[in-house]
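Please check this today:
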Amino acid sequence: MNKYSLQIALAYMSVVIGGGFASGNEVLQFFTGYGLAGIAGSVVAAVLFAFLGMQIARISSIMQAGSHKQVLYILFGEKAGFVVDVILSFFLYGVGVVMLAGAGSTLAQQFGLAPLVGSILMTVLVIATLCLNVRGIINLISAVMPFLLVMVLAITVYSIYTSTGSQAELAAVSEDIPVITFLGAEVPNWALSGLLYASFNIAVGFPMLAVIGGLTKQPKAAALGGIGGGLGLGVLIIVLNIGLFANLDRLVGVEIPTLLLAQAIHPWLAVLMSLALICMIYSTAVGMFFAFGARFATPDTSRFKVLSAIFAVIGLVLSQAGFTKLVGTVYPMLGVVGLVLIIAIAMSWIRTRNRSAEELAADPRVQQK
């Protein structure tokens, strides 16, 4: 894995971790509520992450894509691609709002601050970062990833070994954990929940992954980065899911479960974990507001910076609806868009799996974009 592959893998993981499972709240709703069977659901999500990351990064590299919109037009055609782009952009903005709310909940749970304070601080950081160039944004997102991975893994593994609840007791508690809802109804089983989790997160990671893939002219390296990032995400989800299940008896009603696990080990570790969570949430918030702002203006321009600041401030206001409520509302809806993306990406792979990068690059549709 060369430096391009590594950067793609780290950035892919960073964006999804902040939006998908850094707090533990999402994994709790999507997987842990199904008991031990939820572990199988997390394996389903892991396989999908690797496959989808590979294909998106490869297509973007071949196209030398400058935005996710170009990739969508190749996958769906110009008219349908435009519709999907508008819908996806709308829900990505919703995820950005969720991240601002998550920052408020994290600082509130750890330091007793009003949720609005944490949300304001995150909004300021997002606006300041979006004033950088694209490469600078990607470098920042990638740089914090190794430390964050070590933190999450260490706390989760330790929590698994220090769990005091029996399997029967934990299984009974899992029945009281509200699982994710989809189209107004609870998702009936772990397999569908794993698919929906992957579909939501690929919708979150798609815009930034498309941009990063387009920065390298090595499709194989880009594909390897997508696979590596996807498998890394899968391992983390599985470990975190097991850790949450092992401590489920003390996580009911907690908005930021991973923070409580850190607090149980040592108060100072909880402080470090809260800072790590803020960094994870920050990376996703930047990715979401970047993707949304790029829908209306060219990155690195003054218009882009002004619009991004306006969108972030509006998002701050909307974030006061509450973190858990926003997660349960926005994520399943974005999952529908993600399902459409998964189908389109799978069909693209079926059509092009036997074609070389050179043959694909010569495709008139690719050259046109």
About this structure: The radius of gyration is 19 Å.
